[in-house]
Write a structure and sequence with these properties.
It is a single chain. With 132 residues, this protein is an all-beta fold. It has one domain: Immunoglobulin-like (Sandwich), CATH 2.60.40. 0% of the residues lie in helices and 44% in strands. β8 and β9 form a beta hairpin.
């Protein structure tokens, strides 16, 4: 027998929205979720940014609420008209910042994963010819 139960949004969820279902203890249960509306929007940024390059991202369905940058990689991060704009700074390598999104009844943290590189890298071949 189907029965509606209460659920709550897990606002600390990372990458995808999550819910917590409030149901009585049982030996076994079947949970069916009937989705309505647009599916949650996912993030999209370039994979590689040069230091001091501008990172921008926006969402058409989800609303950006705030930015969390634990690695201090986004300088001057600003959200205006649901568009994030920031200057990429910090050490070279893989970096992750987070943007808090809200869409419908869900709020979650979406990761912005990218690599930081020097604007120009000079790479020498392993074997070099002697120039006379």
């Amino acid at each position: 027998m189907a029965k509606n139960v209460a659920w709550t949004n897990v606002s600390a969820a990372i990458e995808y929205p999550q819910i917590e279902v409030d149901a009585a203890p049982a030996a076994n249960a079947t949970i069916v979720i009937e989705w309505q509306g647009d599916k949650p929007e996912m993030t999209g940024v370039n994979k590689i940014y040069a230091k001091n390059e501008i990172l921008t991202t926006s969402f058409s369905k989800a609303k950006m609420l705030e930015v969390f940058d634990p690695q201090k990689t986004l300088q001057g991060a600003d959200i205006k008209d649901n568009k994030l704009k920031a200057t990429v700074v910090g050490e070279n390598g893989s970096r992750t910042a987070f943007v808090k999104l809200n869409q419908g009844q869900f709020t979650w943290w979406a990761p912005l994963c990218f690599e930081v590189r020097n604007p120009v890298d000079i790479v020498a071949p392993v074997e070099q010819k002697k120039i006379v």
